[in-house]
Amino acid sequence: MPNLILIRHAESENNHLQANLVKQFKDDTTRINEEYDKLATRDPGLSETGKHQAERVAEYLAPLLTALGEHVLIVTSPMRRALQTVMPLVERVGLPRERVVAHVEMFEVGSPILTRERRPSQIAAQLEAEYPLHCRGVPSDERY
User: Fold this and answer.
1) For the CA atoms of 61, 65, 67, 71, what is the dihedral angle to 10 degrees?
2) How far apart (Å, rounded) are the C-alpha atoms in residues 128 and 122?
3) Are 105 and 93 a contacting pair, CB within 8 Å?
4) Within 13 Å, how many C-alpha atoms sit on residue 123's CB side?
5) Residues with Cβ < 8 Å from 29, sequence gap 6 or more?
6) CA-to-CA distance for 10 and 4, rounded, in angstroms?
7) Are 131 and 113 in contact (CB under 8 A)?
8) Contact between 89 and 57 (Cβ < 8 Å)
9) Mean of the per-residue pLDDT values for the chain?
């Protein structure tokens, strides 16, 4: 029987930023949103907490994926936070490049940053050079 496991990205730098702004400005949502818009990045990586969370996910899921052997396919967003979340698992299991796919249509809906510019910061060649994966539909140039 096929297994489907869905994993949301770990805490991103933008998630961390927003949490800190909420602590700093309490109930002043206008100020929180203004500061977030100024400081948030389009394609953030993981915060230190997020990196720890990604390692924990890898630790937890690696035995399951190892047991499934060749029946594993990981499909991820080309966004940096998603890639950084899944890569510790990919490395721990030792998945070959052809079993990891970054798919162009896997984007967050409703993100204030992505609403303005809906694309990751890297193109297919950059992603494939940096991560052990194949890109599906990710453009080879800047035209998303």
Assistant:
1) 160
2) 10
3) no
4) 7
5) none
6) 18
7) no
8) yes
9) 86
Question: Rounded to the nearest 10 degrees, how much is the dihedral formed by the CA atoms of 64, 67, 70, 76?
Answer: 10
Q: Are 74 and 115 in contact (CB under 8 A)?
A: no
Gap between the Cα atoms of 62 and 26, Å rounded = 39
Residue % of the chain over a pLDDT of 70: 86
> Is residue 125 within a helix (H) or strand (E), and if so which, with residue range?
helix 124-130
Quick one: tokens of 32? Answer: 């929180």
Decide: residue 113, CB within 10 A, 0-12 exposed, 13-18 middle, 19+ buried.
middle
Nearest CA to 84 among 47, 113, 35, 111?
Answer: 47
Distance CA 18, CA 109 (A): 17
**pTM, two decimal places:** 0.83
pLDDT of the residue at 76? 92
Question: What beta strand segments (E) does the chain contain?
Answer: 74-76, 100-103, 134-136
